[in-house]
Amino acid sequence: MKRNWESVVLKAFGGKDFRLTVLANEPINARYQRLRLNDGGLLAACGVHPTMWVRLWFDRDGKAHQRAFTLVDPSPELGEFSLEFALHDGTAARWAQAASPGDTVDATVQGSAFVVPDPLPARWYGVGDAASAPALNSLFDTLPAPATVWLEYAHDEEREFPLRARSGHEVVWLPRRDGGAHLVSTVCSALSAAPEAFYWVAAEAASTRAITKHLRRTLGVDKAQVNSLAYWRT
């Protein structure tokens, strides 16, 4: 598969390429598929951090097509990690459903740079959806309670995704309405500024921008307390 201009740009900005090999493939539920992969040396070369993501490259009608996915349960010792795919009518989802042990896929590491707050926050807030649920799970594993997390869902099956919330981690599911406006209004109405809090926002691009703007400009939250990244676009 011939790479496109995106690959050239990523390489110019320090992107590192690896070839992953499928070890196992299993459904999570009707909306998600989980693949375990050999990392091709990725973890040893790049390290690992919560919410870490990689870009996978697929062939779509003879053209390079890339999508980003969060590493799940990475094991540097074994050189393995899992990826979880939300299933819909897309190139990546079709590949994930059909993948068998021994199949390979190219990956690029560039742009994933989350740093765990130090000191750990006394409280944190998260905003996400089906696409960012695996990343939120890594935060549930890392950051202490209390926490409140709002998760937007478009299909009822998305609410069955296995979350790793623990005691003191409150999860609020919200249906996607009015192009994400329901999520934005609900979250912005509930949030308040607190000097000891941490805010992690990773939803659809317009929703992520609106919530981040509310935090920074309306509530005056310091930029060091906010980590935001659009996970997809309408």
UniProtKB/TrEMBL annotation:
Database matches in SUPFAM superfamilies: Riboflavin synthase domain-like (SSF63380)
Domain called FAD-binding FR-type: residue spans: 15-117
Record CDD domains: siderophore_interacting
Pfam families reported for this sequence: FAD_binding_9, SIP
Gene Ontology molecular function: any one: oxidoreductase activity
Highest taxon listed in the record's lineage: Bacteria
Annotated InterPro entries: FAD-bd_FR_type (IPR017927), FNR_nucleotide-bd (IPR039261), Riboflavin_synthase-like_b-brl (IPR017938), SIP_FAD-bd (IPR013113), SIP_fam (IPR039374), SIP_rossman_dom (IPR007037)
Protein name: NADPH-dependent ferric siderophore reductase, contains FAD-binding and SIP domains
Organism: Asanoa hainanensis
